[in-house]
Automatic annotation (TrEMBL):
This is Ferric uptake regulation protein. GO terms for molecular function: DNA-binding transcription factor activity; transcription cis-regulatory region binding; zinc ion binding. InterPro entries: FUR, Fur_C, WH-like_DNA-bd_sf, WH_DNA-bd_sf. Its cofactor is Mn(2+); Fe(2+). The keyword Metal-binding applies. It comes from Salipiger aestuarii. Binds 1 Mn(2+) or Fe(2+) ion per subunit. Keywords: Cytoplasm, DNA-binding, Iron, Metal-binding, Repressor, Transcription, Transcription regulation, Zinc. It is found in: Cytoplasm. Belongs to the Fur family. Fe cation binds at H105, D107, E126, H143. One of its GO terms (biological process) is regulation of secondary metabolite biosynthetic process. One of its GO terms (cellular component) is cytosol.
Length: 156
């Protein structure tokens, strides 16, 4: 029996194969040809558990299929974003990073020392945001919360 790697994103299991198929389908619907290089890139994007930038995605795809160009990576990511299957995040002072769009809503903490991105979800924060918007006469249509953080140092 073959083991299928899966992610658990806030209670939801999604296989890498399913993600790869979604990404491939999005490109095909847009009329983009699926070359060996693009197929390798799609597999890398589907398997990413972090928030890699285009250069890191290029490095990972190049390990699978040497010869993929950085311009192919950028063009493919732009098309995937326009198809709504990946999200581009522009964290302060960093290159754009990418993640799969079909995850439950979550927010991000960015470690200012290491650049690590930590995903989190807080019902308290969601409720408070809705209360603030309602008190000011609004409904939230979309939001994004980014916290820039630094690990606490142990007391000496």
């Amino acid at each position: 029996m073959r083991h299928t790697p899966r992610w658990r994103k806030f209670g939801r299991m999604i296989s890498i194969e399913t993600r790869t198929q979604e990404l491939t389908g999005a490109l095909r619907r847009a009329g983009v040809r699926i070359t060996r290089q693009r197929a390798a890139l799609l597999a890398v994007v589907a398997a990413a558990k972090d928030h890699p930038d285009a250069v890191e995605l290029h490095r990972r795809a190049h390990e699978k299929v040497p010869g993929i160009s950085l311009s192919t990576v950028y063009r493919t990511l732009t098309e995937l974003e326009s198809q709504g299957v990946i999200h581009r995040h522009q964290f302060e002072g960093e290159a754009a990073r990418f993640e799969h769009a079909k995850t439950a809503h979550h927010d991000h903490m960015i470690d200012v020392d290491t650049g690590a991105v930590v995903e989190f979800h807080s019902e308290r924060i969601e409720k408070l945001q809705a209360e603030i918007a309602a008190a000011l006469g609004y409904d939230i249509v979309h939001h994004r919360l980014e916290l820039y953080v630094r690990r606490k140092r142990a007391a000496d």
